[in-house]
Structures are given as C-alpha cells and as structure tokens.
Amino acid sequence: MNRRLIECVPNISEGRDRAKIDAIAAVVETVEGVRLLDVDPGKATNRTVITFVGEPENVIEAAYRLIKKAQELIDMRGHKGEHPRFGATDVCPLVPISGVSMEECAAFAKKLGERVGNELKIPVYLYEYAASEEKRRNLANNRSGEYEGLPKKLTDPAWKPDFGPAAFTDSVARSGAIAIGARNFLVAYNVNLNSTSTRRANAIAFDIREAGRKVKQADGTEVQEPGKLKAVKGIGWYIEEYGIAQLSLNLTDITITPVHVAFDEACKAAEARGIRVTGSELVGLIPKQSLLDAADFYLTRQERSLGISEREKIKIAVKSLGLDDLGPFDPQKKVIEYMLEEPNTERLVRMDLKRFSEETAGESPAPGGGSVAAYVGALGVSLGAMVANLSAHKRGWDDRWKEFSDWAVVGEKLRNELLFLVDEDTRAFDRIMAAMGLPKGSDAEKAARKAAMTEATKGAILTPLRTMEVCVESMALMKAMAENGLPASVSDAGVGALCARTGALGGYLNVRINCAGLDDATFKSEVLAKAEALKVQADALEAEVMALTLAKV
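Above: the chain sequence. Below: its structure as tokens.
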C-alpha cells in the first residue's frame, strides 16, 4: 500500500445498548475516506471496541466526531462493567499502518487530544508514544482509580490532564476522562477457562503477564515478581454472558509475544492450577500474519508441511487457538488485511473455472493470453506443490518432512504470485485503454498522452515477462519432485512442468506482441533478450523433467 494510513481503535463505555453503539459508530463514516472496519460490543464488560482506518487527517476528524457523539449519548454516572474504565470514550489509540511513522502518529494523537480538551472540555491523558512523561506511557497508570477516582485525581497536580479541565465539573461527571495515544498494533485477546472463578483466572493472568504479581516477603515487604511473557498485560474476570472465567490479555507487541505463544503459556499456567483452557476470543481485529504464524507453529509441531494455502492455514490457526469456542469465527470480518481489501482487485482469480472460461471466451480482448498463461503456470506449480505435500506425508519418510515442506512453501509462494499476475495482466491492458482515452488536442496533451501510452505499454510488457520468470523458476520444484518426490505422483510433476513451460511460452508471445508498438528501442531490446533467454530455459527444463518422468512411468 502506498497510501498514508492509520488505524484508530476507540473503546467506548457502552456494550449493551445497540442503538447507542450504532449511533456512535455511524459518525465515523460521515468523514469521507474513512472506513469503519469493526464494531465489537461486550455485554459483561459493557464496552465496545470500534476500529476504523483512513488517511491521518480524516481519521483524526472521525475520531473527534466519535468522541463527541459518545459524550452526548453515554452518561458515566450510571456506568458499570467488568473492564477498567474512566470515560465515555475510555481510550482512543492511533496505530500507524502504512506510510506513517510512530512519531507522526504521536503528533496526530496530541493534535486530537488538544482539540478534545479545548472544544469538548474532556480531561485528556496522553499515553504510550504520545505520553508527556514516562509515568503516563502506561495506560493503566493513567486510568488508575477509574471513573470513581476522578474527583480526587483531577485535583492532584501530579495527574493534571495534558489537555482539558482539571476539575470534576458537571460535564466531566457525565463524560469522564479519556486516554489518547499512539501505539503499535495491539491484539486484545481473551482466553477461555473451564472455570467460573475470577480469583483463579487472575492467578493465571498474573503467572503470564509481564508485570506478574506482588509477593509478600518474610519481613512483610512486597516484591514485584515478573510473569513469563513480555509485552503482555492481563487480568482475570468472570463473563456472565458466557458463564465462564477468562484471561483478558492485551498483547502490546506481537513481534515479542505472538498470539500462539500467549495461548500456549496460558494453557500451561492453567493446567498447573488444575484448570483447562477451552479456547480463546479476539476482541477487534488481528493482522493476518499473526494467524499464519500460529498455523506454522502448530504445523511444525505436528511435523506437517507448511506449504499449504493461506485459507487452510487460517482454518488451522482458528482451530488450534479455539477461536470458534464461543461462536463462529469469520476471518473476513476479523483479519485486518481482509477488511482492507479493495473490491475488484482480484476479479478473475475469484471466479470459478466455468465463469473464468466464459469471461475469456467473451467479446472483450481481456482477459486474454497473458492472463491464461499466468493461470496455466499457477496450475503447474500447484501440481508441484501437491507432490511435495504428499511426499511430506508419506509413511516411512517422516525424517524428510521438512525437506518436502520447504519445497511446498516455495511452490505456494510462486503459485500466489502467478495468481496475482492473472489479474495484473488485465489491469495492464486497462491502463493502456485509459491512456488511449486521454485528450489529444493540444501539443501538450498529445505529449502527455504519448508518455502515458509508453508507460502503460511497458507495464503490459513487464507483466508477461514476470510470468515467464516465475514459470521458469517453478520448474525447479517440478524437477526436484520428479527426482525425489513420491514415485506414485511423478506424472503430476511431469504435467506441472508441461504447464509451466506453456505459461512461460504464453508470456513470451505476449512480450513480443506488446513490444511491437513501443518506440523505446533500448527498453525493447533488453526485454526481448531476457524473454529469449527465458524461453530457452523453459524448453530445456521441461525436457529434463519429462525425461525424469518418462523414466519412472
């Protein structure tokens, strides 16, 4: 993504009145360019996590409108819930997603905080990377005493708000305070227990969270004993809605403690106390890589191939972590990358086989030979990956599972790139058509149109050239499987090589025909030389694989 994007994840102190929740969330989409991704209410916590993304200035405006709406609709004087809180919009973190540094995100948080304090008269505490002093970096410190402690806290000079009134006015009594900050991507993650005991859930949370617990010494003093996991905050609570106790964990840096590590440590700590973990629950969204890493972790434990599709890996992660324990888990609504996908970016590869063939056979020149070449190449590498996965499972070859898994991982990577090229070839054609449609009245317009046509044509040449490169690269997989893979599947490796060569030659034809109308002689010469060399490689590799295959069938 080249766009500057930040995520905002306000937590509002209302989880039961759906009309209020919807009214507050709805203001987000009144700001152009901001996309509401998720609204996740919790009845027992009486709290809703709202997630939206967009360009920074637009997100700041949407966050301000949401905070203002929550101030209008939520009265903290009657609020009760399991989760710590001190305001109608309790926390409002900004998270850099793309093209924005953490320092810039912190500056945006300060800008938002100043406006909320000045215009809405809500006490604002800046936290994490936006904090004005070290003790305020930790959200728990800012929120200590919760809403009920605000009258005293606001009179303490050490806890004067960064913005807004330092007095418990009638307005503040209604709205409470707010923590606004900039932070890394945080995963709010609950682990389900086969217990109803909040005390025991807390004990397990203290075992694993970074802060640990206070332990009384023989002399009566207390010492902080750290827990097992870095970058993890946590408490235990009882959720009446589900009738179980949970560990409520915040994973503040999933590069330090990934979700699967937190889950496994929770399982160990619970078992040590005679309690069983039954599953887990995500609050809000999660990066796709977190689930893929979890799948790889559990597949490796089982000595199973890692070279399987993303969809299968997501299913394995969901089952391994028990994310469907309390209800269905829909990755399309919980994985941030899936929520951010632009419509129609994968128009062709999302079609079924019949529909794709119909689209190809239609009157439009796209999809054409370039898209079909990439798709045939994808089928070829799929066969190679299949042989690798079957070989990794072969009885008696258990000590070789990683060898074949590594090959399958290579195949999966190449398969995904070729599938991308299926649609990219059509997008390249669309860019040429767009350039042709530019005005050509004045000399300046003619020059601009010609430059756009040249660039679009170069793109339409480089796309099938890349198809050639990937198809040729994939033939190493087919050769390895013909030589060393499952003997009963050697014919599949051979067919894979035939498909890969077809994909490469299809790309070659498209490179040549698209070069015909290009004026840049240097570019054309270099590209055609590369294409000729790749064609020779494809022919030679296909012959090698076929010789190996025919010797065994």
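The longest strand covers residues 89-98.
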